[in-house]
Known about the structure:
Elements: E1 9-14, H1 18-29, E2 34-37, H2 57-62, H3 73-82, E3 86-89, E4 93-98, E5 104-108, E6 113-121, E7 125-128, H4 135-140, E8 144-145, H5 153-157, E9 160-164, H6 172-183, E10 188-192, H7 197-206, E11 213-216, E12 220-225, E13 233-237, E14 242-245, E15 248-249, E16 253-256, H8 260-263, E17 289-291, H9 303-323, E18 342-348, H10 352-363, E19 368-371, H11 394-406, E20 413-416, E21 420-425, E22 431-435, E23 440-448, E24 452-454, H12 462-465, E25 470-471, E26 484-490, H13 498-508, E27 512-518, H14 523-533, E28 539-542, E29 546-551, E30 557-561, E31 566-569, E32 572-573, E33 578-580, E34 585-586, E35 613-615, H15 626-650
Parallel strand pairs: 1-2, 1-6, 2-3, 6-17, 8-15, 9-10, 9-15, 10-11, 18-19, 18-23, 19-20, 21-34, 23-35, 25-32, 26-27, 26-32, 27-28
Antiparallel strand pairs: 4-5, 5-6, 7-16, 12-13, 13-14, 21-22, 22-23, 24-33, 29-30, 30-31
Helix pairs in contact: 1-9, 10-11, 10-15
Amino acid sequence: MCDxxxxxxxxxxxxxxxxxxxxxxxLGQAHHRVILFNASNDRLRDPDVNAGSTRPALDLLLHSRRxxxxxFHPFRQEIGKESSEVSVHNQRITQVQRLPNGFFQAxxxxxxxxxxxxxxLADGAEEILPDIDGYDTCWEQQRILTHxxxxxxxxxxxxxxxxxxVGDLAELTMxxxxxxxxxxxxxxxxxxxxxxxxxARALETRISPDARIAIQTTPIQSLQPGSDSPSQVIVHLxxxxxxxxxxxxxRPASQLQGPFARQLNLELTESGAIRISxxxxxxxxxxxxxxxxxxxxxxxxxxxxxxxxxxxxxxxVAARLERGNWGMPTILFSSHTMAAPLFDCLIVxxxxxxLAxxxxxxxxxxxxxxxxxxxxxxxxxxxxxxxxxxxxxxxDYRLAAxxxxxxxxxxxxxxxxxxxxxxxxLDSGEFEATDAVGKVWRGRKLILATGVKDEIPELxxxxxxxxxxxxxxxxxxxxxxxxxPSVGVLAIGPVANPKPAEHLSRLxxxxxxxxxxxxxxxxxxxxxxxxxxxxxxxxxLDNRVIKQLHKTxxxxxxxxxxxxxxxxxxxxxxxxxxxxxxxxxxxxxxxxSAQGTELVASPPFSETTxxxxxxxxxxxxxxxxxxxxxxxGSLAAVGVVSQLAFxxxxx
Length: 651
């Protein structure tokens, strides 16, 4: 047993794959004492020992069925021969813990222990295979491609590539990305949605009929290896039919291979990978614990990325060893931390504007934290007017944008899914935020992307019909209901004015044969409108008082008037009053616009009346739409980055 600081190694590395082996080699060359454990991952063992089990990890990493899982066996042997500082062990580590002296201890399945100053997790990931009969057999026989170019490109050019849109690929965003990626390498693509009719319809609306992409909605009964080629798969459907596919693509979801992240209570990303610090390369949420390779990048798994991570790990660990100080552990970014690291920017709001601002900060290599309370305005099922995302689910967009920020090539943004209860500007000019669980965050700049609150009119039934059947913007909504016999415009609240009432009516006429303006008994407004609309045969003015709005099973709304008559409208148009959403205590000197619908923010970068504080998206713009919020968020990021650069010059 090695539990004293005198006998402890410098580094324990769990995982003998590309990241772990490369890190061990680099650290050994720098004369650090390293213990490398290789047997923590079954899939890196000799293929003869592991025959018939799961697919070799390196085979997956290299995107080629022709590669073998023992690629790194001679490399590890060479490490042991060339570097006296590195010892390679095949023991299976089952338990890791941090000792009271700040060191780390690893224990194998028979009770042997090893101790070191720093712990590196490079133990890989494992696939979660879908519950389809025969899938596991095809997977073990390496008939399922995990990358469109995994096979020889020549064999794909003139053939069809089948895509199994199940598991993670059943998400619309992932399915579309995969299908278009596959189409680049195959003459045609067939997508199996495995009975998911909603996914099939969503794909059909986004795929051109001449794109040579077919969608098969019938559920899959089983997969069977074919006999004509090593890659052939026979897809049996529940309707009794079968389709012979020469190439089948699917990338199963992944999960952490070992239990060590759970044992150390490390924070994870949304996909389940170990979260890496935005400020310290390859550092996890616990000081002294580093992670690299598949376990830190479940969605981006390639050999070359893992090898690069190995080098990065070695450099980061070497820097930590130089620093020393092995006292009590420091939690870097968990919800229980007492320390408040200084970010370049705090971004309040995880919608289109906030996410766009975060991406801009990533591009400038600036650190930021995005606070997302998960409460969004107008919870509709579709977003529009966003190129490539038109008619997509906003949730899918946010999910893809979040992954882009944290699981791709960027590592300077932290996502905090928590509401804030207080934001304070300090005398130093920095901003301090306290979240709902009491954690304190500090930032040099502040971006408010909080959105707005809709003030529901006191009209009976209005709340029941909003937002499904009452549209505030006819560019965002209405196209899907085009051709309606009649639609109505509610000339109440902000629309109880001749100009907006007529404007919305004429826009609505593009989508309906006739339009009715309901003034709800406002005689003065009716008198002002009549001269402008009296020549329009398609436009009717109804000055009766609305008694109640009644929702239906679909989109149409029944308008009940005070005289007892009712009329069904295809949908209603109304822009209600909005106010900026600031659901936290603050000392920010913010001003509202004259209309009270947004914060005063100076163009083009949207800085508010509080220096260093920016308001972007709906809370800082008169026109509120997703596409404009994205653009506005990007501009706010430019403003923040520019200010930071000149602040640093002044110092």
